[in-house]
Design a protein that fits this description.
three-stranded antiparallel sheet, 9 helices
Length: 280
């Protein structure tokens, strides 16, 4: 079963930040986003130097689910964590989450995920990683991996806002509403009754480098830099951390530091965590 430690080891050993060329379509942003998603698959499956059927087989063995742009998550590790991949093209850009609010954890009961995701394996709740890449000219300049539990508040925080807005919209008198998972779907807006309006929430969140700038500072002079934060409770559940610690002894550019991070639900509380950084 692959996990985040395997991905970091693969990253350090591979030492490449070139994304795969994707010539399908004309939207360069989408294409570089596809390239980042393929890079992340290779990161966790260890398939950077494998092509064709062999690569597909290893990816299939690593992931129980590979998603699409419409529903979170982008991937689920077989028997392991969920993964959401986000690309930014400016180092200070926020992440566009669209209609999906931030995820502290991923629940199989969520209305936002697809049936294929729900049935990919037997599961009720998964920890979710946000894998964020700053991409420039098809080069991955900076990469960060943080867990939702260290990055986002509990689901109730976002649902409270969403439900309050939804109830307010639906309380408008003399308007015909249809059932919708969005904030509202209003029918017969005009006298002919032929126009409808969808009310959608568009969520966003500051990128991990800005959120965790109090424990990690980027060096823009590096060809590539990597940051990962894992709280100590999660770190203790990962059975192969010693392999990463041993690698850090021989790989001088890889560092593992003890830090304290803010609790997303109460910043007055601090959590013990590990900061893993790497650059070349």
């Amino acid at each position: 079963m692959s996990n985040i430690i395997d991905a970091i080891i693969n990253l350090v050993n591979y030492k490449s930040n070139s994304l795969l060329e994707n010539t399908a379509g004309n939207n360069r942003a989408n294409n570089s986003g596809d390239g980042l998603e393929e890079y992340v698959k290779d990161l966790f499956a260890g398939t950077f130097n494998i092509d064709g059927a062999q690569r597909l087989e290893k990816i299939s063995n690593t992931f129980s689910y590979l998603g699409n742009n419409s529903n979170p998550p982008d991937a689920m590790l077989r028997g392991g964590d969920a993964i959401e991949v986000k690309k930014i093209e400016s180092p200070n850009s926020a992440l566009a989450l669209n209609s999906s609010y931030p995820k502290n954890k991923l629940f199989a009961s969520s209305q936002m995920i697809s049936q294929a995701c729900q049935k990919a394996e037997q599961w009720d709740c998964k920890d979710i990683m946000y894998v964020v890449g700053f991409v420039q000219s098809n080069q991955l300049k900076q990469l960060s991996i943080v867990y939702g539990m260290d990055y986002c508040a509990d689901e109730s925080c976002y649902l409270r806002i969403k439900n309050t807005i939804k109830e307010s919209v639906e309380s408008i008198p003399s308007i015909e509403f249809a059932e919708s998972r969005e904030l509202g779907h209003i029918n017969k807006v005009d006298p002919l009754g032929i126009t409808y309006m969808r009310v959608r929430g568009m969520w966003g969140i500051e990128n991990p480098w800005k959120v965790f700038s109090y424990v990690y500072q980027r060096n823009s002079n590096n060809h590539f830099s990597f940051m990962c934060i894992i709280n100590n409770e999660k770190w203790a559940t990962l059975g192969n951390t010693s392999s990463l610690e041993n690698l850090a002894v021989t790989e001088r550019a890889l560092t593992i530091s003890n830090i304290r991070i803010k609790d997303p639900n109460n910043p007055a509380n601090l959590r013990d965590a590990k900061l893993i950084s790497f650059s070349f």
